[in-house]
Amino acid sequence: MAGISIRSDICTGCMNCQTVCALKKAGLHDRSASAIRVDLQLFSGAHTHTYCRQCEIPSCSNACPVNAISFNRNTRAWIVDDKLCLKCGKCVEACPFEAMFQNKEKATPFKCDLCNGNPACVEACVFNAITFRVNQQ
Amino acid sequence: MKYGGYAGKLLRVNLTTGKIEQQNTMDYLPNWYGGRAMAARIAWDEIPPGTGAFDPESPLIILTGPLTGTAAPFSGRTTVSGISAQGHPVEWYSRSSFGGHWGPELKHAGFDGLIITGRASSPVFLKIEDRICTIQDARSLWGMGIYSSQKKIMAQYGDSWRVFSIGPAGENKCRIAIAATETESASGQGGYGAVMGSKNLKAIAVHGTLPLEVAEPDRFREVCRLIRNEAHGSHGWPHTPKLDKDKVKRFGQRYQACTQGCAVRCYDARFYTTVPAVLEKGKVLSGQVDCIAGLFPGFEGSFYNWKLGFEAGFEIGQIANDEGLNHWEILMGLVPWLRFLKNDGVLSKIDGMDIDLNNPEFWAFLLRGISRREGEFRSALSEGTVRASEILGIGEDRIKDLFPAWGYAGHWDGHGDRINYVFFPYWVVSALQWAVDTRDPISSAHGYGQNIMGWSKICSPELGLEWNTIKKVSAKVYGSEACADPESGYSGKAFPVWWHGQRSVMKDSLTVGDQVFPRIYSLKTEDNFARAGSMDGPSFERHMFSSLTGIPWNDKELEHASERVIQLERALLVRNFNRSRADDESVIPYFEKEEEQTNPLIGHRVSLERDEFKKVMDEYYSLRGWSKETGRPTLETMTKFGLEKEAGKIVDKD
């Protein structure tokens, strides 16, 4: 499997990961278009992060009634197929990490697709709080 | 919205009438392209002569820039402008700024900024969410600290809200009152917290979900990526500081961005999660320490060598933040002044308590008394140290040791500020920056003295550059090696003031962080001149601006627009306050004292030579297009910047 992992204890709250993800995926600055979300804890410093773990047993894919979420062996990411997707939102409800997003009813849910193997968030995090791991096994 | 980056609307709030209007940001674009630039235009149009800081009609202008809240590195800042309560000898037009995440949130709420006038009949706060602004009752918040009022509003509306608030100091119109967000991001200098307080405005709470467009998304993303990766260490210097292992273990020290988009590990921006309180025993404190706040514990071996210790110093710094008082004024002006008076035998107690800087009880007594205007002495200090000296009739000589001008304590000036290392001839540039400004000018002008010293072997023994390299690299920017040559004396010192003048406007208008930009020196290129991809370091800001907004300016055009702001600000000072060359020269006596540090290449301490400095001033006026006699922009200069209509108000003023 592959995926990103985040060390909250290193995160400085700069938000670069979130802004860059939306910019890459949607071409604008829109937090709701980002597949990685940072919830700043201004007074404790213990920021929390919402992001896809690319689970080995993916709740989102298992919940999909039409198998629209499949594993891409090249990118090592679970991908939503817009053509198959019924926009029912069951995957959003199923994700234990709340990392499947659907901004509007009847919109195709979206998630982290690992940017074809070069995640923009990882590059944007100059503090190395976000790392990208690829395990071919 | 025609241009990318902008939210598209400005909020105009009249707290006297309760009227709230929205104005198109486009009314000011592209010439007055954000932040300080836009504020200058609004101030010229809307602040008539005779307006004081606390007059209800005096506008408080809070503005972001196009880059604020975007993927641009170091871009989370917001500017605050208006008639300054801290300004001395008169309350005059000035500016401040703050970081954190409030500005980005405001833009996602649909607004590039606010222009607030009037005075509410009772305490209020503004609630702004997705293009809707309402005025809310703040009576239950009045009297609360800045932390408590943020927490109370966030408890009501949600953790994702961002709140810009004043504390008791602002409510009581202390002239050194801040307005702040989070635990350390303050509009510190200028006394704008008092201006908010005078309007009965406790806080501005924002939350937004609206998108911000980008003119050229792929180019903008690539430009930002390159610039982020080019960034060096703390303050844009070559070295990257490590965390303090002991403080990590004991107090949970960690790096924390002091503003959205930060991309360097900083000496100064540290968050602490578990600091045991000394005064409030049993309590565990958390919060950010940025910049000068690191001095609260005292610094052994320096001029600031009191011994509070880390825990008590941290707690006092947090108290100052919560009460809403200006850290820079306290640490670089007010407390050193009190210590001078004690050591000079002028004063041993204030309002009945011994002056003892090793005693945290004294600090708490001092600061809480200032913010709440308790006791004769502390009430006087709430007017700022310079005014307090006048009110109390003591310590005038020591004011001259610590405060270069305009009611502000020293900063990278080589004389009053004894923590930042800058020697002759570099502080000649600082002196001229102080001379022509309305406040401590270093807020947006760290790019010269701090940058050169930080890149020298003196401040960066391992990674710093040799003087010859600094000279060669700087000549690419300033046109002459003399401008950054440590042995150049007064030669070439006007140009950096001129150049960094517009660069400061640029930083406060786009907005980007002052500590890092403009990028000049580098360890990542063969010739040590900063570059990223095909971009030269000094062009970074323009590339981000043009690819984000779609405003197709080149470097010269963005610099010209930024210099226009300086001309209009100067014209405003002439029109409203009769600003003159004589005012500018009033800083000279301060710099005629012997410098605090020694240039090792000279070997002895140096003082400003009046006649030489006046020649540098002549040269600066000439570069700026100002009359050498009066210090006013000439008609020709105003016309060059398209300000011929405004020139009529100042050129024939006599």
CA-based shape of chain B = globular
**Total number of β-strand segments of chain A?**
6
Distance between the termini of chain B: 43 Å
**Class of secondary structure makeup of chain B:** alpha+beta
The total beta strand count of chain B reads: 19
Count of helices of chain B?
24
**Quaternary:** heterodimer
Any idea what the CATH architecture of the largest domain in chain B is? 4-Layer Sandwich
CATH topology of chain A: Alpha-Beta Plaits
Low-confidence stretches of chain B: none
Work out the count of structural domains of chain B. 3
Whole-angstrom Rg of chain B: 23 Å
Proper CATH architecture of chain A? 2-Layer Sandwich
Helix-strand string of chain A? EHEEHEEHHE
Which percent range describes the beta-strand content of chain A?
15-25%
Helix-strand category of chain A: alpha+beta
Helix content of chain A: 10-25%
Tell me the strand order in the biggest sheet of chain A: 1-6
Q: What amount of the residues of chain B lies in strands?
A: 5-15%
Q: Residue-averaged pLDDT of chain B, rounded?
A: 97
Name of the CATH first level of chain A: Alpha Beta
